[in-house]
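Field log, afternoon session.

UNIT: design team B
ACTIVITY: writing a sequence onto a fixed backbone
BACKBONE:
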């Protein structure tokens, strides 16, 4: 039986910042869906409030079997994207098949102070089918197209050097909340 972890704003986040205090965002497969964890420094109260309850656009951009989940907070003109690598989940013997077969669409967004690792805000959103399905279809293509996560990473680095987050927003599918 897994231990239940209680998360609370203002308390330490259970995962450490993999970038050692720098800003960054990552997707983490969790059962039938995924979480987005954003570590950021120098957060204002408006940024935290907007993360928790403000207007939000989200979407997906897919190239070469790699889905990028995109968040955009119009009030702040703050955008970020995270790639989803299903192969790393498979290679680490995590339960990626539950994600691939599942119909879950709830994504939890965590905002964590990059230096202190204190949880500043969290929010759960339900993805529209057009976004959730595009992510799952891209992950299925990943499993067919790439022999391993290292091969996928070569394509990922090329895409990251070619497309900015605003490019992804223009070319992808975006939904407003």
């Amino acid at each position: 039986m897994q231990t239940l972890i209680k998360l609370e704003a203002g308390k330490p986040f259970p995962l450490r910042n993999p970038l050692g205090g720098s800003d960054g965002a990552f997707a983490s497969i969790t059962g039938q869906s995924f979480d987005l964890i954003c570590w950021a420094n120098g957060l204002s109260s408006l940024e935290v409030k907007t993360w928790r309850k403000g207007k939000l656009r989200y979407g997906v951009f897919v190239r070469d079997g790699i889905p990028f989940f995109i968040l955009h907070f119009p009030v702040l003109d703050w955008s970020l994207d995270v790639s989803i690598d299903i192969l790393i989940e498979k290679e680490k013997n995590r339960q990626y098949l539950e994600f691939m077969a599942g119909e879950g669409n709830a994504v939890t967004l965590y905002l964590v102070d990059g230096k202190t690792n204190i949880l500043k805000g969290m929010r759960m959103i339900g993805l529209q089918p057009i976004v959730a399905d595009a992510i799952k279809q891209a992950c299925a293509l990943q499993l067919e197209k790439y022999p391993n996560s290292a091969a996928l990473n070569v394509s990922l680095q090329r895409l990251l050097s070619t497309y900015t987050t605003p490019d992804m927003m223009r070319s992808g599918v975006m939904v407003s909340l």
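LOG NOTE: The longest helix spans residues 129-145.
NEXT ACTIVITY: expression trials, pending approval
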